[in-house]
Design brief:
Blueprint (H helix, E strand, L loop, with lengths): L1 H94 L4 H106 L1
Helix pairs in contact: 1-2
């Protein structure tokens, strides 16, 4: 009888310990689920950032192409104006006589020619700057995209690790539940044995 009582106590202690372990495992599962949700949110945010960066890349490329087209159009217009001024200068110097009016018009035309040449030089410098800045901007944006992709890969790896941990914890929970069921069965068997012994003792006494 005493041995059976001791066995009952041991089984009850084991049950209590297993229940505490189950509580701890459930808490761990909840924490892991929260971490998974946070990582999923981070993944979504990073995907949104990637999309925004791609849109920025496209917008920057379009803006740079538009600027290049505008600069090319301005260059063409300036070249046409230069040709017209040269034709005017040739016409004034060949047809008109050397009077004061023709000299003033030629000087004005020469000044306009110089201004147009300066504008041409400035536009050429702007074109060169844009052509130099284009690859740098593209390289920077590509580096940002690569960094974001690396972050996405790392987050995916973390998600996989957390999923593996969740699976392991679920397996542990199942094992603990099986152990609890086995211990409950043992308790029932021990109680039945105790009842049988009590009945035998009562029969022997009477």
């Amino acid at each position: 009888m005493l041995l059976l009582l001791l066995l009952l106590l041991l089984v009850l202690l084991l049950l209590l310990l297993l229940l505490q372990l189950l509580q701890l495992l459930l808490l761990l599962l909840l924490l892991l689920l929260l971490l998974l949700l946070l990582l999923l949110l981070l993944l979504l945010l990073l995907l949104l950032l990637l999309l925004l960066l791609l849109l920025l890349l496209l917008l920057l490329l379009l803006l740079l192409l538009l600027l290049l087209l505008l600069l090319l159009l301005l260059l063409l217009l300036l070249l046409l104006q230069l040709l017209l001024l040269l034709l005017l200068l040739l016409s004034t110097t060949t047809t008109a006589a050397a009077t004061t009016t023709t000299t003033t018009t030629t000087t004005i035309l020469l000044l306009l020619l110089l201004l147009l040449l300066l504008l041409l030089l400035l536009l050429l410098l702007l074109l060169l700057l844009l052509l130099l800045l284009l690859p740098l901007l593209l390289q920077l944006l590509l580096l940002l995209l690569l960094l974001l992709l690396l972050l996405l890969l790392l987050l995916l790896l973390l998600l996989l690790l957390l999923l593996l941990l969740l699976l392991l914890l679920l397996l542990l929970l199942l094992l603990l539940l099986l152990l609890l069921l086995l211990l409950l069965l043992l308790l029932l068997l021990l109680l039945l044995l105790l009842l049988l012994l009590l009945l035998l003792l009562l029969l022997l006494l009477y």
